[in-house]
């Protein structure tokens, strides 16, 4: 136990920014850039911040925000408003960012996380929309040593949804669970790719510590976090640092710290003198955003089944274990694949499909770093493979080999079986030949078995399986072996 854990309580609120999966940007018709887009190729006068141009609200961005709010159990405002947040930095083309200040689209929600087998509810303060900034790239001239910055405006104006939590998170473990649960929901809805490594989901935890029951302590904002691991490590670092400051009689400064993965520390970026004055005022070029109840209900109807509900249904409907249900429902694509492959809907078939999806299939996907929706294996392919095995056409061992070939080539299982001659031997004549050969070749094991060492038969079964290249089932082989071994030599 660290001193932090024994003496202080950690209090964390988390701000998450997620780039929305819309075709065009937030206030102009530019298409969204991809990670491969050359710099400054997705720009127009609006996102370049030219004077005299007029922004237009992206309807899909609003809809994705409403859906996210509904998934996070928020109240959806009847009227929201865009405001100008004024500050000067080279990544801000207009000198202000269009955001939502006091009238966000969604308020007062919650998200449940699982922590040590317990369910905990984390409050959601608000979900609002804003626009992303341009990207700056800092460089140094190799001949003069002069430092300069390059601006890529592609990202400027990309719809950004901000989800702000209540200070309900109490540990780095809870913060990680919260971020994972939020990412899962954003992906289920199709609101965002929500990939922290790619930067389309970014998080800023506000961390403070206090004596249990005391007032909130001074919070420190953590930035530059590009993965769940960074978030976890930065919070662990910060709670320890703050405890050391307090224990040595110091006070916590109001500041922003940036995580440095290379040194494993959150280093001071800037101190804040009081709250910054962004001189917010209503965006005069945009009308208030009126959100009718009909629109909200339309969005509610469009919501997919969410992870928690799906997990519960998989346990109930297919009798999956809690663990299997959780793994299968981890992504919507995986859950859809599972259900499509469970053609007859029976619990027995569901368990077999679940074993494939969480077993060999998951292993190969991980090894190749492929998402299930991009794999060559189809739900129909898995279903056909299971049919072949259940009909006794192929053995379980052969099924694994067939599956590897399906995964590599995208071929149907029937095709693989035929091409490679993998059909299980059903005529016992062929097996009998192998059995006789193995008995003749393994005098020692035969003698052991006949002398009463029943275990010896396992070795002989293995030899026949090798001889028949796994195409004969162990039960058939065992039966034939016993028959032959019972005959007097
Ligand atoms: Zn544009």
In short:
The chain is built from 17 helices and 16 strands. It is of the alpha+beta class. The longest helix has 20 residues.
What is the spatial order of strands in the main beta sheet?
2-6-7-10-1-11-12-13-14
Number of strands: 16
The helicity comes to 40-55%
Question: How would you sum up the global shape?
Answer: elongated
The averaged pLDDT comes out at: 92
- CA radius of gyration is 30 Å
Distance between the termini: 71 Å
**What ligand species are in this complex?**
zinc ion
Number of domains: 3
Report the β-strand fraction as a percent range. 15-25%
Unreliable parts: 1-5
Outline the biggest β-sheet.
9 strands, mixed
Number of helices: 17
Given the helix and strand composition, which structural class is it? alpha+beta
Outline the fold blueprint.
Elements: H1 3-7, E1 9-19, H2 59-71, E2 75-76, E3 79-80, E4 83-86, E5 96-99, E6 106-115, E7 118-131, E8 135-140, E9 147-152, E10 159-165, H3 172-189, E11 201-210, E12 220-223, H4 228-247, E13 255-260, E14 265-271, E15 281-282, E16 289-290, H5 293-302, H6 307-318, H7 322-328, H8 332-341, H9 347-358, H10 360-368, H11 379-390, H12 396-409, H13 413-420, H14 428-441, H15 443-450, H16 456-467, H17 474-486
Parallel strand pairs: 12-13
Antiparallel strand pairs: 1-10, 1-11, 2-6, 3-16, 4-5, 4-15, 6-7, 7-10, 8-9, 11-12, 13-14
The chain binds zinc ion.
Distinctive features:
Arc Repressor Mutant, subunit A; nine-stranded mixed β-sheet; alpha+beta; 40% helix; 489 residues; disordered N terminus; binds zinc ion; three-stranded antiparallel β-sheet; 17 helices
């Amino acid at each position: 136990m660290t001193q932090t854990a024994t003496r202080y309580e950690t209090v964390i609120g988390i701000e998450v920014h997620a780039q929305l999966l819309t075709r065009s940007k937030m206030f102009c018709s530019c298409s969204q850039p991809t990670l491969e887009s050359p710099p400054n190729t997705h720009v127009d006068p609006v996102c370049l911040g030219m004077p005299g141009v007029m922004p237009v609200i992206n309807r899909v961005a609003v809809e994705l925000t409403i859906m996210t709010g509904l998934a996070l159990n928020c109240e959806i405002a009847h009227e929201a408003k865009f405001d100008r947040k004024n500050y000067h930095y080279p990544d801000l083309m207009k000198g202000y960012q269009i955001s939502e200040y006091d009238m966000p689209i969604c308020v007062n929600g919650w998200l449940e996380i699982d922590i040590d087998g317990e369910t905990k509810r984390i409050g959601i303060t608000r979900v609002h929309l804003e626009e992303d900034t341009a990207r700056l790239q800092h460089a140094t001239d190799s001949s003069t040593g002069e430092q300069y910055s390059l601006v890529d405006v592609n990202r400027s104006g990309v719809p950004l949804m901000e989800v702000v939590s209540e200070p309900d998170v109490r540990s780095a473990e809870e913060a990680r669970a919260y971020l994972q649960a939020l990412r899962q929901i954003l992906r289920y809805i199709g609101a965002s790719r929500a990939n922290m490594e790619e930067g389309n989901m970014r998080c800023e935890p506000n961390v403070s510590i206090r004596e249990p029951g005391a007032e909130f302590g001074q919070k420190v904002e953590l930035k530059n976090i590009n993965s769940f691991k960074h978030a976890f490590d930065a919070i662990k670092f910060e709670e320890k640092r703050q405890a050391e400051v307090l224990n040595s009689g110091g006070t916590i400064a109001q500041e922003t710290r940036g995580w440095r993965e290379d040194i494993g520390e959150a280093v001071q970026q800037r101190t804040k003198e009081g709250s910054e004055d962004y001189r917010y005022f209503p965006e005069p070029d945009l009308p208030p955003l009126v959100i009718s109840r009909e629109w909200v209900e339309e969005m509610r109807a469009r919501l997919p089944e969410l992870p928690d509900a799906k997990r519960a249904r998989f346990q109930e409907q297919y009798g999956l274990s809690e663990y299997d249900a959780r793994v299968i429902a981890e992504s919507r694509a995986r859950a859809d694949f599972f259900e499509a492959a469970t053609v007859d809907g029976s619990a027995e078939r569901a368990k077999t499909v679940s074993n494939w999806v969480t077993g060999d299939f998951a292993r190969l996907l991980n090894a190749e770093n492929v998402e299930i929706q991009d794999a060559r294996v189809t739900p129909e392919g898995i279903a056909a493979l299971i049919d072949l095995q259940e009909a006794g056409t192929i053995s379980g061992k052969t099924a694994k080999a067939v599956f590897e070939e399906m995964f590599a080539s995208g071929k149907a299982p029937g095709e693989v079986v035929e091409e490679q001659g993998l059909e299980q031997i059903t005529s016992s004549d062929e097996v009998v030949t192998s059995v006789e050969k193995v008995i003749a070749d393994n005098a020692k094991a035969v003698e052991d078995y006949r002398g009463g060492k029943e275990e010896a038969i396992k070795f002989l079964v293995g030899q026949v399986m090798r001889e028949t290249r796994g195409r004969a089932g162990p039960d058939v082989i065992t039966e034939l072996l016993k028959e032959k071994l019972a005959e007097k030599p």
